[in-house]
Design goal:
Tetraspanin_EC2_sf, transmembrane, 62% helix, Cd81 Antigen, Extracellular Domain, Chain: A, transmembrane helix, membrane, mainly alpha
Length: 167
């Protein structure tokens, strides 16, 4: 229960850094569900411990039934996650592309894009060529990508596409 609580809290905390990319506010719902499951698991663990100490057949039977229901719920969640993974991927990529389109180097969305690229060591949604279709790429005049695309160890990176090894 403590481990699940930590994971749920970590996901919610991480969500705050990337909430501009996720227009659907229900994206944090899995983390809330994880925390709720942690609370329920703590209560169920207490029931199991009390039933064991009292050697109660009814309590142990209830504990077994609850554990089976939780197992079925976990399998269902896994199957739903597997089935809908492509939809989530497509939705997130579409939202990211729209945020990248608004990039101008100054607005709050630009700060989030720069932070994301620096933290994840990436450039663009899929790769640096995603920038070629944005207003930023055409408005810079020198057809470059933001400096947040540069590798951290690249000393003379200018963001030009003629130096893709530095991106």
């Amino acid at each position: 229960a403590a481990g699940l609580s930590y994971v749920g809290a970590y996901v919610i905390n991480t969500y705050r850094s990337y909430d501009n990319f996720l227009q659907d506010k229900y994206a944090v719902l899995p983390a809330v569900i994880i925390i709720c499951v942690a609370v329920v698991m703590f209560v169920i663990g207490l029931i199991g411990c009390c039933a064991t100490f009292r050697e109660s057949r009814v309590g142990l039977g209830l504990f077994l039934a609850i554990i089976l229901v939780i197992f079925i719920a976990e399998v269902s969640a896994f199957v739903l996650g597997f089935v809908y993974r492509e939809k989530v991927k497509t939705d997130v990529q579409g939202t990211m592309r729209s945020v990248f389109e608004q990039y101008d180097g100054k607005n709050p969305e630009s700060t989030v894009v720069d932070y994301l690229q620096e933290q994840l060591h990436c450039c663009g949604v899929k790769n640096y060529s995603d920038w070629t279709t944005t207003q930023w790429f055409n408005s810079t005049g020198n057809n470059s990508v933001p400096l947040s695309c540069c590798q951290q160890d690249a000393k003379n990176c200018t963001g030009h596409l003629d130096q893709p090894q530095e991106l």
